[in-house]
Design brief:
heterotrimer, A mainly alpha (346), B mainly alpha (291), C alpha/beta (248), A: 346 residues, mainly alpha, 16 helices, 3 strands, C: 248 residues, alpha/beta, 6-stranded mixed beta sheet, 10 helices, 10 strands, 40% helix
């Protein structure tokens, strides 16, 4: 059915009447190989030097793995989503409640977490078609806050005040340090997979279609693009990816509390990873994630209780001085790699 | 039954007027600058903790401390306009993120210096004690606050209708480019708008400070109400804002006293907003004008 | 000659104003049909109704045997309708090549076409309108004439059967306009398309069009060869006013 053909410089994939060319250009692989191997060596290095760094690395991977789908969602729907943590909440609570109620392991809860997140995203997907500009910002901003309120109202189910305990751990090797090492590799794996998938999508024809929708929805409609389908897909698919991170968080810590992930502070961190990293460039998300996680760790270790004040101040200054984000220092952005504007009625 | 109606009527009036005071500024900024001032949440804690800071650290009296706080509010508002809003008016994602960060910074700073245990209490009550209206007993402070709110709103409306500056602001809210062409100084008016919207917020905070709880994270509580009210009212229409704030007040009053579940207050208000947005997608007031 | 587009009794009104009233006409295969009328006659409304941005209140549009009256714009584009805009509307953040690539991919459904294949195809259309040397420039940096040409390339790249051209002359100087008109006539022959050409200036259509439909105030005034239409009393009246004879 799916026909794969290897040619000298490309892999040609055919399915029914569709065709994809996957160009293989080994001369461009050097940087990717260097950075990937550094990411893979780092946990082992930290394992012997300072195990605490592994923890920070996992946090960084989580930030990056939430920001990467958010970049895809932002570019694909042409709107800035201010509530990605809503999907973390859905995925995390699904995994946590199932694991506690039936004693299921992480692999058993994963499909349910994905399915429920996608269902939730489908229910709210009319938003991306109907709501524009400020209304979309507002509604997405309020969604996680409402969900948080729900967890407090139905405290007997969600345990909004104390959090859910007793979720099966992601891995259990019997040794805490080994556990951390394995989780670090799993998180790096997820992050790299997301990076590959999202980068491939943005470079493919669908990325091009998303760019046209961002630029001018009406004309995009006129040249034969079903914009509603593209927008809903670009909303639902990344939402599922973010939901997986909720599942990961629940099983990684063994506890899940909405109050940690649903308030604005967590959302703001993800948003800053996206913007400081490189204004929705996918590679920038990784840099931003590592930067924010390590900055936070260093500040907590050196500053003490004033850290919550200093951390946002530093990020605010960075927001001002880096117009193209951290990745922009290394490389100027190209077309198709930008945050869509919000288009307020003006 | 009669007592329920009394409760609902009086609390709708009181809550509605105070919500009106809280959300008037947000709504006006929405209408004139056409941005979502997500940093609006910082004004609330800054009012309380700024005054408290002057009283505590410098040993000033209440009135000088309030004046000092007002000056600081104006300065910060000016800096936010010059540094952020003017610079990033076209790049809204940066603007909204930066404004959110500002409110976070103020909140965290207040939390760092005066944590919730520090017992911040501003004695700004004009009249002590409670008033009984029918079967309802409420703090007199809130009744006075409600009347202040109505008077202040009336002043705002009069200002926008009767004065030249008000007319210019209304023109500006319709279209920037045309306003520039006919000779309106857009920037001055923007700064002016940023300044006047501080007034109702500061007054509302000073009024409710002795009666309602004060904590560093209080900004978002009022901010949520302000967002709901201004969306319900149609993003920047004063008529709509007035109706919407009383509607939200009514919902809260019903939730508290008839259903008896204060936990559902914000959720029910949000559901109301969603329903109204589905029926009338542009909010209660269907016009984009300020008044 | 077979009919490509059949328009029957289209009526469209905005509130109390009737922009189109019972307009009917046909476009045959391989034909250039001019569509003229003074300002506010309802020309642009007609294109919007035909390309799907507005729906007609009543009437029927049939394209190649398919009723498209209630179809969405993208479905019509997939069937082989394409249009240009009166004011060029490029994708400002895309390069010239990429915007043509998108429409080559998305227009008519094509089998076995990857992104790279679409790139090869798009180059041809860019060459045709003479923008090949500007292919890697962002659309926001192109000149007005180049934007018009880019728009034409984008419309042609969807491989339409019928191309709507909305006032190609507006904003061009005589030399550029001449080039544009020649290009459109050439495109008609080379790509085997039919053209529905809306124009305010009648002189352009005199040579290019096979048939002309004239409307005013939403009503069809005349239909026929350019000579017939230009000598029609009603058309002259619509352009010059009812008392033209006294000053002629």
């Amino acid at each position: 059915m799916v026909d794969i053909e290897f040619k000298r410089d490309r892999i040609v994939i055919r399915y029914k009447e569709k065709k994809w060319d996957w160009m293989l250009e080994p001369r461009y692989w050097r940087n990717s190989i260097i950075w990937t191997s550094m990411l893979l060596i780092f946990p082992v290095f930290a394992f012997f030097v300072s195990p605490g760094l592994i923890n920070t690395m996992i946090t960084a991977n989580i930030y990056a793995a939430i920001a990467i789908p958010l970049a895809l969602m932002t570019i694909g729907t042409g709107r800035m989503n201010f509530g990605p943590n809503f999907f973390i909440g859905i995925g995390g609570y699904t995994a946590a409640l199932l694991s506690i109620a039936y004693g299921w392991g992480p692999l058993a809860t994963l499909p349910f977490a994905i399915i429920l997140t996608i269902l939730a995203a489908l229910i709210f997907s009319p938003l991306v078609v109907v709501a524009r500009g400020l209304y979309y910002v507002l509604l997405t901003l309020l969604l996680p806050l409402v969900f948080l309120e729900v967890t407090f109202i139905y405290s007997n189910i969600f345990k909004g005040d104390v959090g859910l305990f007793g979720i099966k751990l992601l891995v259990d090797m019997g040794n805490a340090k080994l556990n951390f090492l394995t989780v670090a590799y799993i998180s790096t794996g997820i992050m790299l997979l997301y990076l590959l998938v999202v980068n491939k999508i943005l470079k493919s024809r669908y990325g091009l279609i998303m760019a046209t929708i961002n630029d001018d929805e009406e004309v995009a409609h006129g040249i034969g693009i079903n914009i509603n389908k593209v927008k809903i897909l670009a909303f639902v698919f990344p939402a599922g990816m973010i939901g997986v991170m909720g599942w990961f968080l629940a099983h990684y810590f063994g506890t899940f509390a909405g109050i940690t992930y649903l308030p604005l502070t967590f959302m703001l961190k993800i948003l800053l990873v996206l913007i400081i990293g490189g204004r929705a460039q996918v590679f920038g998300c990784v840099i931003g994630g590592y930067f924010v996680a390590f900055l936070e760790m260093i500040l907590i270790r050196t500053m003490g209780p004033i850290q919550p004040v200093v951390f946002p101040i530093i990020l605010l200054i960075l927001l001002f001085v880096l117009p193209e984000g951290l990745f922009g220092i290394y490389r100027k952005r190209r077309y198709r790699e930008y945050l869509p504007t919000l288009h307020v009625r003006r | 039954m009669w007592s329920y109606i009394q409760l609902i009527l009086i609390y709708t009036f009181i809550l509605g007027s105070i919500y009106l005071l809280v959300s008037l500024g947000f709504s006006i900024i929405c209408g004139v600058l056409r941005i979502f001032h997500l940093g609006y949440a910082y004004i609330f804690p800054l009012t309380i903790y700024g005054t408290w800071m002057f009283m505590q650290e410098l040993g000033w009296g209440l009135i000088p401390a309030i004046l000092g706080m007002v000056v600081i509010q104006f300065i910060i508002s000016y800096l936010i306009y010059k540094g952020m809003i003017k610079r990033y008016l076209e790049k809204e994602e940066i603007l909204l993120t930066a404004l959110l960060l500002v409110s976070l910074i103020v909140e965290q700073a207040a939390n760092y210096r005066y944590p919730i245990q520090a017992g911040v209490y501003l004695k700004t009550s004009l009249i002590e004690g409670t008033t009984q209206i029918g079967v309802v007993v409420i703090p007199t402070q809130l009744v006075i606050g409600a009347f202040i709110a109505l008077i202040l709103t009336a002043l705002f409306v009069l200002f926008f209708i009767k004065t030249k500056t008000g007319l210019a602001v209304r023109a500006l809210s319709q279209d920037i480019y045309s306003s520039k062409i006919i000779g309106i100084n857009v920037e001055t008016l923007y700064i002016f708008t940023m300044m006047i919207v501080l007034v109702p917020v500061i007054i509302s905070m000073l009024v409710v400070a002795p009666v309602w709880a004060v904590e560093p994270g209080m900004g978002w509580l009022y901010m949520t109400i302000a967002i709901l009210v201004s969306v319900l009212g149609g993003l920047g229409n004063i008529k709509g804002t007035i109706i919407a704030s009383f509607l939200i007040g009514l919902t809260h009053a019903i939730m508290c006293f008839v259903v008896g579940e204060p936990r559902f207050m914000n959720l029910s208000a949000l559901v109301l907003v969603m329903i109204i947005l589905i029926i009338r997608p542009q909010g209660i007031a269907r016009s984009e004008a300020l008044w | 000659m077979t009919e490509l587009l059949k328009v029957r009794n289209i009526t469209k009104s905005f509130g109390g104003l009737t922009a189109l009233n019972n307009v009917s006409f046909d476009v045959h295969k391989g034909e250039t049909v001019g569509f003229i009328g003074p300002n506010g006659a309802g020309k642009t409304t007609m294109v919007n109704v035909l390309s799907g941005y507005m729906y007609a209140d009543s009437g029927e549009i049939v394209m190649d045997g398919v009723v498209i009256t209630k179809m969405k714009p993208y479905q019509r584009a997939n069937l082989g309708l394409s249009r240009t805009y009166q004011i060029p509307r490029p994708f400002p953040e895309l390069t010239a090549l990429n915007s043509v690539v998108t429409s080559a991919m998305c227009g008519k459904k094509r089998k076995n076409q990857s992104l790279e294949d679409a790139g090869y195809e798009a180059t041809h259309y860019l060459e045709f309108v003479g923008l090949f040397s500007r292919r890697n420039i962002l659309a926001s940096d192109l000149t007005f004439y180049e934007l018009r040409m880019l728009e034409l390339a984008r419309a042609l790249a969807t491989t339409p059967k019928l191309l709507f051209i909305d006032e190609v002359m507006a904003g061009l100087n005589p030399g550029e306009a001449n080039k544009a008109v020649h290009l459109i006539t050439r495109a008609k022959e080379e790509f085997g398309i039919s053209i529905f050409w809306i124009e305010h200036v009648m002189a352009v259509l005199m040579d290019a069009a096979d048939r002309i439909v004239a409307i005013d105030h939403g009503e069809k005034l005349a239909e026929g060869t350019p000579e017939e239409v230009t000598s029609n009393e009603k058309v002259i009246e619509a352009y010059l006013g009812s008392g033209w004879r006294t000053y002629a």
